[in-house]
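Continuing the batch. This is chain 6 of the set; chains 1 through 5 are on the previous pages. Same settings as before, nothing changed between runs. Recording input and output for traceability.
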Amino acid sequence: MFTKRRPPRFYRPPRKKRLLRILGFFLCLWLGFLGVTAFLLQPYRLNSPTMEPEEPEGSRFLASPLVFGLLGRFRAPRRGDLVLIAPPYLEKKSWYYTIVDNFVSFFTLQRIFLKVGSPGDGPNLWRLTRIAAIPGDRIRAENYRLFIQPPGEGNFRGEGAFYPGVSLQFPSLPSNWDPSLYLTGKAPEFFDSPGLDNPNRGPGYLAETLLGEGQYLVLSDNRGLGEDSFDFGPVDKSRLRGMVFFRYWPRPALYF
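Output for chain 6:
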């Protein structure tokens, strides 16, 4: 009598099937990463001292696009929120460019990003900054110090009254500094989009302005170093890419 031949105890599928399984596994990982970073969590590393002393250079954060997206009706942006923004000069890239860029960054552990043509709107070019004023606020600034008049109030108050406990750093200029020059020492004509700056009043000056609907003033904690509304003016809500809610390195901290 003939008996049915049993497969080996440790069955190994053909090499082609093994390769397809491995590729399928990494494809599922990438799709999961794509979904999480697009809708739930976005990791971000601060590579400059623009938010010191509160947030030291090298700090790592988690931000959520949901807060200002699907959940925007429950949690509007507030003064003092740490946010990721896409500066106004970043162009929106096509969907296939975004997917390929995400694919490359995932499989290189976020060490390589595509750099084709003009700067694209991607996490590697986003800025970590703080919301200083919200729609309806009347604002003005002198020497990088911001003053805010909220809706319904008759007087300006210093920004420290709106997000107490946040340490800010202000640049100090030499007594003989030429007020017509920026902190870089370059003439105002060097800048293509000086935002709300008035070159005749020197650096860190914002003329009195009423923020319109959907407009937010975003500023760095370390004034004069960051790229913020002193450079390109208020940003539209559509430029907010996520609210930072957790710092996991070097000292864990929650932000709400």
